[in-house]
Amino acid sequence: MVDQGVDVLLLSVGADLPYLTGYGAMPLERLTMLVLPRDGEAKLVIPELEASLVDVQPEFALHAWGETEDPLNIVDDMLGSASTVAIGDTTWARFLVGLIERNDERTFRNASDVMTPLRAVKTPDEIERLRAASHAVDRIAARLQAGEIPLVGQTEAQVSAELGRQILEEGHGKVNFAIVAAGENAASPHHHAGDRVIRENEGVLCDFGGTMFGDDGIGYCSDLTRCVYTGEPTAEFSEAYDVLFEAQAASVAAATVGTPAQDVDRAGREIISAAGYGEYFIHRTGHGIGVEAHEEPYIVEGNRDGLAAGNAFSVEPGIYVPGRFGMRIEDIVVAADEGPDPLNQVDHHLAVIN
Fold it and tell me: Is residue 253 situated within a structural domain?
């Protein structure tokens, strides 16, 4: 905040608040907002009926407001003479507009200007939390690859529900997503599992993850993608998968400290393009991960920032042939001084289930 000339940081709904306080605000019309001045005491302004849910820490005080009070007046009073305010990127617009109406001489900026550099570089403790979450979904993927999770004859939605159940069983506090896409449906990277019945002799893409919470109330995410084939893969599918396997490994190997994020994207994309599948790789190679499933840094063309030790991100190239098939391999990787540290260790080869 000092470096960027920010007088006060305001955090409401979104991941920044629990990252700093361990408390995640409900997305209500009743305002919850951390008021964090550059100098002075931090205060969490919260509806009185929610106050008992907060595990108050020495780093901030609690200011509960009653039903007949206007919380924006309370926050405005706390801002005082502050001229530059960084406000949470996902704060409801009605609250920002209300604060501007009370004092239109203040300059408002995105809180991500302050928070992104902090959250993007993980501490050793954060990395171990991410590793624990990654290993949990690894165990589920291993059961999937071993044929222990029924596929043929099940709908995508049924398999998705089973993956979700196992995510919780493996210690996550919530399921963030469980994509199950069979056959031609896998050509849509973010396919919604539906009533499509999984058949023999087709590829099935499974991308799943959740949030694993610590005793401090802060959660860290998992995110993993693996593909299986329900029978004997076609030559076309096997050939494409071999290309994808090589590309994903190349991007992981390129994820070294100091390497521009776009070069990690290029490492795998060049292999996929050289094999003739370039037009079918339609998304970035990866996204950062931490208290949110998607955060900085993004592994994409145009991001020339060098990876920093402690950056954690997905490496997930894909090949999607419309109307035919789709495939993706995804790991969470940490850039470390000793080299890339893949947190997911489950087999990357195409699992064939007969």
Answer: yes
* pLDDT tens digit sequence for 12-53: 999 999 999 999 998 989 999 999 999 999 999 999 999 999
Place of tokens 């896409």: 181
- pLDDT, tens only, 139-161: 999 999 999 999 999 999 999 99
Same domain membership, residue 128 and residue 48: no
Distance in angstroms (rounded) separating the CA atoms of residues 17 and 23:
7
Q: Specify the pTM.
A: 0.94
Q: 63: which 2 tokens? A: 């200011």
What total of structural domains would you count in the chain?
2
Does a structural domain hold residue 104?
Answer: yes
Q: Name the residue among 234, 237, 323, 240 with its Cα closest to residue 275.
A: 240
Q: Are residues 219 and 142 in the same domain?
A: yes
DSSP per residue over 150-181, as a string? --TTSBHHHHHHHHHHHHHHTT-SEEEEEEEE
